[in-house]
Amino acid sequence: MSTNLLVPDAQTILKLQAILPETVVLAAFDIVDRGNVIKYTTSWGHTHYEVLGSLAAYPVFIDLQAGTATTMYCSCPAFTYAVLTSGTHLMCKHILATRIAKQLQLYVQRGVEEDFLTNNIVQHYTNH
Ligand SMILES: [Zn+2]
């Protein structure tokens, strides 16, 4: 039996580095490694992801409906500036971490009650 330690192979890292800065790639693997990607699942089967950053927890949305401006969204400042505004990055480290965690099933699972999720979202969007 192998352990669940995250050891990305060199090819994966090279591929990611071709489209993203090395710092973003390494930071994303670090986030996954620390178990900082949380997958919330509600009682009715809805899921959403949250990434614990050093300063805040960021709700991260991947696989959004086609037809929206972007299929991914993160609430961190880097996403707003580097992805949405300047377009220099394809995604931020939180989104990359979430995608890696989802792929490798290395997220932490938590269930949420409807009230908690609603409050969380309302709080998030009223903080701006
Ligand atoms: Zn982010």
UniProtKB/TrEMBL annotation:
Pfam families: SWIM (PF04434). GO terms for biological process: double-strand break repair via homologous recombination. Coiled coil: none annotated. GO terms for molecular function: zinc ion binding. Residues 58-103 form the SWIM-type domain. Keywords: Metal-binding, Zinc, Zinc-finger. GO terms for cellular component: Shu complex. This is SWIM-type domain-containing protein.
